[in-house]
Design goal:
The protein is α/β, with parallel strands linked by helices. About 40% of the residues lie in helices and about 15% in strands. It has a domain at about 1-70 and about 340-395 and about 435-505: Aspartate Aminotransferase, domain 1 (Alpha-Beta Complex), CATH 3.90.1150. The chain contains 17 helices and 17 strands. A hairpin with a 2-residue loop joins strand 13 (about 365-370) and strand 14. Helix 5 packs antiparallel against helix 11 (about 325-340), helix 6 (about 105-115) runs parallel beside helix 11 (about 325-340) and helix 12 (about 340-360) packs parallel to helix 17 (about 475-505).
Amino acid sequence: MRRSGAAAGALAGRPAGERLAYEGALKRQAARESAARTYARALPIVPVRARGLTIEGADGRRYLDCLSGAGTLALGHNHPVVLEAIRKVLDSGAPLHALDLATPVTDAFTTELFRTLPPGLADRARVQFCGPAGTDAVEAAVKLVRTATGRNGLLAFTGTYRGTTARAFEVSEDAFDMRVARLPFPQDYRCPFGVGGTRGADLAARWTESVLDDPESGVPLPAGMILEPVQGEGGVIPAPDEWMRRMRQITAARSIPLIADEVQTGVGRTGAFWAVEHSGVTPDVMVLSKAIGGSLPLAVVVYRDDLDVWEPGAHAGTFRGNQLAMAAGTATLAYVRENHLAERAATLGSRLLTQLSELARQFSVIGEVRGRGLMIGVEMVGEGEGGGEGETGSERGGDFQGAGELRGVGGPWAGLEGAGDAVRDKAPEHARAPRPAAPGLAAAVQQECLRRGLIVGLGGRHASVVRLLPPLTVSDEQAAAVLDRLTDAVETVARSHARGEKQHQR
């Protein structure tokens, strides 16, 4: 396994026993663990200590962690209030496993959770504790709306990721299931209709209405619609607020439960405690996990009481009563709320987006900087126009599947002949000609960041988006250090890419 020069240098200064332990752990992992492992391949480090934003590896190096457990660590690593909450339960002699029995720890968690819920939901909500992962919560939410409505189909959006269990996977982007209708998710840089902005979002909403109202669409009235207020694994794509309101109006008018997937966006991450609050939307169902467990496994579904038609035992999970996770989660929810960390995320996130946008103007390898709060994505692109490898119409900024109807075959698109071309002529340059996704450049930036002691993630349709998910407790000084290291990494990759292009042209 190759190591960067910096990592090798750090190891050289460590005792021989620690060097062998570090290298041995990586070798044993590669030999013993599944080929499905992901983060370990791109981030060959062995964490031994962590606090806040910082991880110390067994190689003696310190890293600024902007992966945060894929968004799980709202307060960073080992925050004092989380550790104190866990120790309090351990020292009390309380049961660590209680199934779904009422306990003081569970009661405290649900009370704090309900205190934070969006207006209009908290006063008539029910909570379902399910398995400990976000994918388990998706499973429960899908089963809930199918049971409550007596219908089977679902509406989902391109670019989504829900997890890896069967029911969660069927509503993810990569799955194909006749019971799930795929709808265009609005975005600017790679707009499904090639126009971006308000117009693109309006067309996406009208497409949804057409699918539901056209008796020949092949899509019967579904059991529910599931969406992310900000697509995370899909490339950090915020849903426009007006489009969110349109989805709420469309589903409410047709008695379709709206499921908001707040697994990654929740608990202050986007600059509001729950991302749906940006648009003022109150969903019928919320899927919650990651940060609500305060770094420990916990997942719940919160939903309107009139949907609560399950029979006892209709959905369960042996570890749904994780007492340590609930204690850690209660402490995290309260700390974020009392210390206004969502507002802090909004302010700092806006500043980082502005600074990163300036970086994008300096280096052509950055196609777009986007995000909300402390959920930020930097899309890396190559030369030319269009999508990356394996592009589809929705990814290259061209037509969404079936969007030929826009060219005037009647129905809801009547009078829009040539609308795409007309609007595209007035659209910003990035909306007119998105450049091809460059997963190789994104991976190179990730590795250059690691060499500089910065951990970042990758995501997006082609894994071409460098993702930043720092803890909400990140200081201004730490944020500046993150930006400096990322800037240095991008500059290094951009220069290397430019040299390679010149050599290729010769």
